[in-house]
Structures are given as C-alpha cells and as structure tokens.
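Regression test case RT-17, inverse folding.

Input:
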C-alpha cells in the first residue's frame, strides 16, 4: 500500500501494471495541506474516460509502517485501458478552500 503525498508543485507519477478490469486501490493524503482548524467538507475524483470508480472512502486516517496519515482519501479503480499515462485527480472542498491533488498512472502491457 502506498500513500501519495507531495508538495503540489509537480504531479506524482506512478508506474502501475494493471490488467483490464482488475481493481487497484490508490490513496491521497491531505494532512500536510490542512491547517489545524480545517475540516474536509467533500471529496470528488476526476477520472479519464474508460476508468471506473468502484469505491471510495474519504477523510480517514491511514497508518503505513507506523506513520499515520490524516485526512486521507481512497479510491478503488478499474480500467479497460492497457497502455498510456492517465491523470487521476482528487479534489477536496474544506471548511476554508478547494484543493486539488493528482497523480499519473502509467499502464504497461496487460499482464
């Protein structure tokens, strides 16, 4: 499991091998971007054509290797695509502002 967190100046790129219609889980952590009194009001995902959102979870705390990541969103995705780079964007509306964070998924040949 990986939690995607970056400074927002450069889109993170993930190389992922996926077979068509297999599901993959991705996480986006917002904790480092939130002020101490800021709360998440809503979260939405912007997906390329031929990508399917199977499930989501918003504003959770995820622990990876003993580190807790606050305000983390999860999406489970599938696609019929087999090659190329595709942007996945998470947009959150907080009690103070709207934020966007994304990453590129690079699909290699089918497994």
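Golden output:
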């Amino acid at each position: 499991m990986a939690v995607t967190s970056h400074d927002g100046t450069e889109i993170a790129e993930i190389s992922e091998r996926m077979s068509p219609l297999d599901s993959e889980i991705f996480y986006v952590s917002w904790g480092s971007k939130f002020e101490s009194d800021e709360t998440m009001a809503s979260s939405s995902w912007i997906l390329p054509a031929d990508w399917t959102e199977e499930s989501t979870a918003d504003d959770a705390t995820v622990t990876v290797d003993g580190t807790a990541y606050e305000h983390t969103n999860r999406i489970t995705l599938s696609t019929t695509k087999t090659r190329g780079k595709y942007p996945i964007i998470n947009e959150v509306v907080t009690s103070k502002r709207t934020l966007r964070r994304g990453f590129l998924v690079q699909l290699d040949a089918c497994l």
